[in-house]
Amino acid sequence: MFSLKTSKFISSISRPRPWAALTTSLSSTRVSNRLPSRTCKRSYSESTGARDRSAVGVFTPAAAALFVATGAGLFYYFQYEKQKLQERKQKELESRSVGRAHVGGPFTLTTHDGKPFSDKDMLGKWNFVYFGFTNCPDICPAELDKVGAVMTSLESEYGEIFQPMFISVDPARDTTSQMKTYLADFHPRIIGLRGDYGSTKFICKAYRVYFSTPPDADSNGDYLVDHSIYVYFMDPDGKFVEAFGQSSTPEEVVKRVKKEVEEWEKDKGRKV
Amino acid sequence: MGWFSSSKPEVSIVTRQDRKQCWESRDLYFQCLDRGGVLEAGKEGSVCAKEKSKYEENCAKSWIEYFNKRRILAEQQKDLLLQSKIQAQEAKRR
């Protein structure tokens, strides 16, 4: 880093042509500005020629050039360093290890095939986690289709290292059979998860998901559930990476995921 | 609001096909409302009776309420959405 500084410094000295011209003219105007008082002094002291030169002192054109060149060199050097620092900070912000949100946590739920499923079953795969309900008019199916499209695109490149999950926020009506019928229309490997009201509430809290179902919802009722509509992207260690909203396009999601997967593989020196 | 008094059994929508049917009949009904210059569903009189009965047949009550409300909201939010879109594009450019 230091050698870089000096080389930059030297290079700015070795080409001081425009500045030299500027500083010489600057110093000469300075001298000429002082001239009137000098002529006054001359009336009582004749041997001022040498003193004048010493009064001007070290401020010779060469010194001025060096001064300006050093200033300019330092200025550009610091600007360059500042920019590098900012770029590094930006990279850190984007990287997975710094400033990770505390989303997710342990849970145990039941799949749409009636098997138990816990957070441990998420490990070793990149997971897309979506919260919704089967009686959802339009947003949930659209988001699940998006997850499907993203999965297809990613798996054509990386193989089956991704796992989509659908967690019901409407446990009163979303029975395992209802979930099974519903999910048949989406990605073939999507896992539907449900639990009782308490465990639903628990996992929603862990994922910072809001949902409006009351605890005593009528299992035959015709109601809608208001809920957060993010797709949570979790890494193979079960850690949160990113939440994709409705406005993220499949292309944007794929791009972000690829970056993450590549970074992870570089970090760990292996594939999932 | 006719559908509140209807005594039809509740519509259960689980499959993609069910949803498609509901959305299509909703779109037809809303197009009919648009032609009549009516924003709020139910205020059109009897001009869209055919479309309306299809809509009620294919969609659950809760969905109908939701779509009708959203139709009004969407109209009110048109300007807001436009603004946020512009903002989002600007943010993306940065």
Automatic annotation (TrEMBL), chain A:
Q: Which domain of life is it from?
A: Eukaryota
Query: Which InterPro entries does this one have?
Result: SCO1/SenC, Synth_of_cyt-c-oxidase_Sco1/2, Thioredoxin-like_sf, Thioredoxin_domain
Coiled-coil ranges (or none): none
Decide whether keyword Zinc is in the record: no
Provide the disulphide bond pattern.
C136-C140
**Which keywords are on file for this protein?**
Copper, Disulfide bond, Membrane, Metal-binding, Mitochondrion, Mitochondrion inner membrane, Transmembrane, Transmembrane helix
User: Can you supply a Gene Ontology BP term from the record?
Assistant: intracellular copper ion homeostasis
Q: Record's SUPFAM superfamilies?
A: Thioredoxin-like (SSF52833)
Q: Which residues cross the membrane?
A: 58-78
What subcellular compartments does it reside in?
Mitochondrion inner membrane
Q: What is this protein called?
A: Thioredoxin domain-containing protein
Q: What is the lineage of its organism?
A: Eukaryota, Fungi, Dikarya, Basidiomycota, Agaricomycotina
UniProtKB/TrEMBL annotation, chain B:
Annotated localization: Mitochondrion
The record, for InterPro entries, names: COA6_fun, COX6B-like, CX6/COA6-like_sf
A Pfam cross-reference name:
COX6B
Query: Which keywords does this chain's UniProt record carry?
Result: Disulfide bond, Mitochondrion
Would I find Disulfide bond among this entry's keywords? yes
Protein family (similarity comment): Belongs to the cytochrome c oxidase subunit 6B family.
The protein depicted here goes by the name Unplaced genomic scaffold PAXINscaffold_21, whole genome shotgun sequence
- Biological source species: Paxillus involutus ATCC 200175
The taxonomy runs: Eukaryota, Fungi, Dikarya, Basidiomycota, Agaricomycotina
